[in-house]
Amino acid sequence: MTRQRLSPAERREQVVQAARSVIVQRGLAGTSLRDIAAAAQVSMGTVTYHFSGVDEILSAVVIAESERFYGSVVAAADAEPDAWRALQLLVDPLFDDAPDVEAHWRIWSDFWAAVTRRPDMADAYAQRIRHWEACCARTIERGVAAGTFRAVDPEDAALKLAAYADGLGTQRGQGVPGLTAERARAWMSEFVELLLSPDR
């Protein structure tokens, strides 16, 4: 059987997709370049040709994951004229009780853990992985302008929402007892209300 020839970009994508599946199954700490090469069905040389190490692969996985997971969510929120509804469209998918969402938070947990060891890891990718937070800021800005939200700094408020969502998502990814998807959504909605309601 003849092996299909892929372009360098396609081969790189193949490695990234394989790395995602291995990291979700084993965690970053349990993932080696050899594991990724085996999952991608390529040689070690192919992996090291495209990536310098596991941390660089994780960064590529996170970029792809961010674009895949948040792309349609952000598009829907930007198209929604009602700011409260737009924020709901941004928040609810983060806490769906689904394997894909659980995998998403496992990847993010591993990424943030890696960033604590190498803070420079996130610098080059900040704009590409913060789609959700940037959309929150845009949504809050138009909500404030319309008088729907209280007068807050949109970027500060978006960062607070991102920090709270990351905390809840990470706890969910770690399987903390009692923190169901429904409960996480309720807590996130409560936080949004406390932060932005003009009646508070």
Automatic annotation (TrEMBL):
DNA-binding region per Swiss-Prot/TrEMBL record: 32-51
UniProt KW keywords: DNA-binding, Repressor, Transcription, Transcription regulation
Protein name: TetR family transcriptional regulator
Superkingdom, taxonomy of origin: Bacteria
One MF annotation (Gene Ontology) recorded for this entry: DNA-binding transcription factor activity
Domain HTH tetR-type stretches: 9-69
PROSITE patterns: HTH_TETR_2
